[in-house]
């Protein structure tokens, strides 16, 4: 399996592909983050089984409430990473046991998680691939409903008031911070200006389609038609001579709007050979 990072591995596992025992070494080289977390196989030992169940429930719900992810049980949490195999659990095996652990969450886990046991030379490793759920997934602990969320490499509990807001339909829009940074370099015929747009989702909801754009004056450019809504956000001071107003929308390299999971950011690069004068420049 050719994998470039945890996100690609998640997509492959959710599609039904399976990891071969010879590919466990590839797992050891991946970093924990938004889409991946390692847990020591010790949590499946009989003396720690209840603790292990709580961990699995917490991480399954947290990944499902974010943008999905992979929980790997059987690799050490401390570095350097090494195989720390799972113990034998129940007559049905590890995958059946883990599926039963989250059975009460099953109606909310759509599509259902993929459970795979990889039998390595050092022992079994359990992989649980979780897709993003269409609604918040409750994790019940000690008869109390809790909501967990994966943020970068941490699993945090969502405050009850915030979960209530989401259930009642409030705060249904993602919160996006957008910054614009032009490059600095010597002017001249060989100089190509480069611009960076950094979009950061600082809210709990994923932003499905984001397009960043800027408005500025451009030399040798025809004026671009701007709608009234966009003009209302601009403080335009027309320069003299042959400057034309330019409105440019930036997308990711494939030309599609990009998607931002909760509490994540993306930098989009735009380079142009045009000469710009930034008398009025805004992000939209």
Describe this structure in words.
The protein has 284 residues and is α+β, with helices and mostly antiparallel strands. It is 18% helix and 30% strand. It contains six helices and 16 strands. Strands 1-2-4-3 form a four-stranded mixed sheet, with helices on both faces. Strands 9-10-15 form a three-stranded antiparallel sheet, with no helix packed on it. A three-stranded antiparallel sheet has the order 13-12-16, with no helix packed on it. The two termini are 40 Å apart. The relative contact order is 0.13. Mean pLDDT is 79; it is low at 271-284.
Order of helices and strands: HHEHEHEEEEEEHEEEEHEEEE
Rg for CA atoms = 24 Å
- Would you tell me the overall average pLDDT? 79
Helix amount: 10-25%
Total beta-strand segments: 16
- Work out the strand percent: 25-35%
Quaternary state reads single chain
Poorly predicted spans: 271-284
Let me know the largest β-sheet: 4 strands, mixed
- How would you write the strand order of the largest sheet? 1-2-4-3
Overall spatial form: elongated
Q: Which structural class fits the helix and strand makeup? A: alpha+beta
**For the terminal residues, how far apart are their CA atoms?**
40 Å
Quick structural summary:
By secondary structure, the chain is of the alpha+beta class.
List the helices and strands and how they pair.
Layout: H1 6-14, H2 24-28, E1 36-39, H3 49-65, E2 69-73, H4 94-101, E3 114-120, E4 123-130, E5 139-141, E6 144-146, E7 148-151, E8 154-157, H5 160-167, E9 176-182, E10 194-201, E11 207-210, E12 212-219, H6 228-231, E13 243-250, E14 258-260, E15 264-271, E16 276-277
Parallel strand pairs: 1-2
Antiparallel strand pairs: 2-4, 3-4, 5-6, 7-8, 9-10, 10-15, 11-14, 12-13, 12-16
